[in-house]
Amino acid sequence: MQIVKNSKIYVAISAVFLIISIFLIFAWKLNLWIDMTWWIQMDYNYSKNIDITAIQKDLKTESESFLNDGKQVINNTSAYKITWENTLSAVVWFYNDIDDKTLDTLKEDFRAKTLAIIKAQDDSAIEAKYVNIWKSFWDYIKDTAILTLAIAIVAIAIYVTYAFSWVIWGISIWSFAVITIITLFHDVLISTWLYVGISSFFPEFKIDTFFVTALLTILWYSINDTIVVFDRIRWNLKQFWGKTWKDAKNLEEIVDLSITETVTRSIYTSLTLAFVLITIFFFGPETIKGFVLVMIFWTIVWTYSSIFIASPILYMVNKNKKLSVYKKVVIDPEDKIVV
């Protein structure tokens, strides 16, 4: 396979997708599930027999017409009775892309509307408890993501740097680590963009805790295939670099050879995983379909990046460097040290 020859085309394609991914992830309104949004909870004590189904319907209808600057601000609503008590609990989830002052006003307005809905069935009902949650799981993730990601990147960089030390003089050991991190971001960002785009047209695919779990899984597994290809490059560098006559190969040939030797493994591994994921997607539980869809996207992107991105970039970074085989110093035990 002559992957390196067309490496600029593959890298350019990925660069375009990355730019689109970063722009749209931050520009589009994310389809957040209720565990990722701010919410309020109101408990009401009542004395008459109330129709909980009617209250749920009224809350949903009211939330759909409850707008701010022409945009919906409520993600979802729920109402239920507390067992063995004359208490009803209503929960309202708000999108968290509104400034704090405006959101606080909107919460108070809908709080009043909710009480009016309850009193329409029982005018003696009173609000017994009000809980206003400002921090959501989504905010927690955003607050801790930078630190967590930094620790993960440092750990991966140290591991890859150590694993690929003393390969060939002239190739920076840090190039292996940096390119691994680049492909990691490549896989995560493009997979996230694909899922965010799908969720805009199919609302059932929301940003939820399963989505976050899928991203963490991607962080763990995305480097696997890249490391396998890099390890093959390391082996072939030792085998063919610096040789003479027919055994000699330049860096481009070594990279292409390494990709050729590992591409079948990569494709078979990806297809096996894809078949399992697609089966789960169509026949598995509804609750994990978002997780599975992210993993399907990642499988496609991961296979592409390990073959067409990581190794070609390694070649592009090191192609003009003067390389030489690293030779360990062998100490003859018979040598005597003269003091």
Short description:
With 339 residues, the protein is of the alpha+beta class. It has helices at residues 7-27, 52-64, 100-119, 137-163, 173-201, 209-240, 251-283, 289-308, 310-318; strands spanning 38-45, 67-68, 71-72, 74-81, 87-94, 126-133, 168-169, 324-325.
Number of domains: 2
Number of extended strands: 8
Question: Which architecture of the largest domain would the CATH scheme give at its second level?
Answer: Up-down Bundle
Succession of helices and strands = HEHEEEEHEHEHHHHHE
Biggest sheet details: 4 strands, antiparallel
Uncertain stretches: none
Shape: elongated
N-to-C span:
57 Å
Report the structural category. alpha+beta
Features of the shown structure:
alpha+beta; Alpha-Beta Plaits; elongated; single chain; 339 residues; 8 strands; 9 helices; Multidrug efflux transporter AcrB transmembrane fold
Folded structure, characterized:
This protein is α+β, with helices and mostly antiparallel strands. The chain has two domains: 4-30 and 137-325, Multidrug efflux transporter AcrB transmembrane domain (Multidrug efflux transporter AcrB transmembrane fold); 40-133, Alpha-Beta Plaits, CATH 3.30.70. Helices cover 60% and strands 12% of the residues. The protein is built from nine helices and eight strands. It has helices at 7-27, 52-64, 100-119, 137-163, 173-201, 209-240, 251-283, 289-308, 310-318, and strands at 38-45, 67-68, 71-72, 74-81, 87-94, 126-133, 168-169, 324-325. It has a four-stranded antiparallel sheet, covered by helices on one side. It has a two-stranded antiparallel sheet with strand order 2-3. Strands 7-8 form a two-stranded antiparallel sheet. A hairpin with a 2-residue loop joins strand 2 and strand 3 (71-72). It is elongated and about 95 Å long. 32% of the residues are buried. The model has no long low-confidence stretch (mean pLDDT 83).
